[in-house]
Amino acid sequence: MQKPLSNAELAVMELLWQVDDPLTARQLREQLYPDATKAQHGTVQQLLQRLEEKGFVDRDRSHSVHFFVPRIGKQEYTATQLESLADKLTAGSIAPLITHLVEQRRISPDEIARIRDYLEQQPSEADDE
Known about the structure:
Largest sheet: 3 strands, antiparallel
Structural class: mainly alpha
CATH class of the largest domain: Mainly Alpha
């Protein structure tokens, strides 16, 4: 199971997920820290190194400037983190999370309708027999 990303690592990944093209460390730094100092460039380099070591990004070393791309998608990362949270807090059940979000009105009626439609399209256990 993937370890959760720190807030700084997640900020880098969010930028990589938003852009379809590979990005350089400099491009990432300019987006994260528009008024960057030399120290912040080093910070971005360290974040990218950690993300590469964790298997979240790939580095293209074929050019004089290295380019970075996400190795996993945002949806995949989100799914594994939600499953991990459910395992820790509710013995693997996601129902308490969904119930809480609905009760607190954190899920809009449109989102509830989309979830309902999705669930209705899923095969039932009776279909498996």
